[in-house]
Design goal:
Radius of gyration: 20 Å
Strand content: 5-15%
Distance between the termini: 31 Å
Helix content: 40-55%
Number of strands: 4
Number of helices: 7
Order of helices and strands: EHHHHHEEHHE
Structural class: alpha+beta
Shape: elongated
Length: about 190
């Protein structure tokens, strides 16, 4: 695809891919449990979230939590502690289920019945680039009206689909300069 950076950072520019910044912002909007899973309070909060209904249990199993109900009960009662592998699986399942549960609500908030959401593009950091090689990249804003593919790819944790959706559904609307915003310092929006 034209304008895709092949050797980003060769001259010292710093930034992250735009879709990574979008995923970060969407994660911030979700409101995950803050207490780490390694602490008892965080473990219990995640277990309660994933086991309070049959539907939640099924979603947790589909997301990779493969332990038995008996093991979960012993974790809830404090009789046993999960291994590091199970803690990782629990955290992954929690984040996956939480994203899928919140995606529909978040999508409605971002689309706002066709009005869309104002997004801020903070350009990449060129402070370490030599003066002759620096380019002028301005702070930009854009109203994105179609978030369906972006939120769906984020909810499924599919980075390639998120990158494609972000570039083709959002960034190209910046016009001929869209390639300058493939890498950014930050993407800001609220829902």
């Amino acid at each position: 695809m034209p304008e895709r950076n092949i050797e980003f950072g060769k001259y010292g520019a710093r930034g992250i891919k735009g879709y990574e910044a979008v995923a970060r912002q969407l994660d911030a909007l979700v409101g995950f449990i803050v207490t780490p899973v390694t602490q008892r309070r965080g473990l219990l909060a995640r277990l309660h979230y994933l086991t309070r209904t049959d539907h939640a249990r099924q979603a947790a199993r589909e997301a990779g939590l493969t332990v038995t109900d008996r093991t979960i009960k012993s974790w809830l009662d404090g009789k046993r502690s999960p291994s590091k592998k199970n803690l990782h699986n629990l955290e992954t399942a929690y984040r996956t289920v939480r994203r899928q549960n919140v995606a529909r609500y978040l999508l409605a908030r971002l689309n706002r019945e066709g009005r869309g959401t104002r997004v801020e593009f903070h350009p990449l950091n060129q402070s370490q680039v030599d003066r002759p090689r620096q380019r002028t990249v301005a702070y930009r804003t854009l109203n994105i009206r179609h978030w369906n593919r972006i939120v769906e790819a984020w909810a499924n944790d599919d980075e390639d689909a998120l990158d494609d959706a972000w570039i083709s559904d959002a960034v190209v609307d910046l016009g001929s300069e869209w390639g300058q915003y493939e890498y950014v310092t930050n993407i800001g929006f609220a829902a």
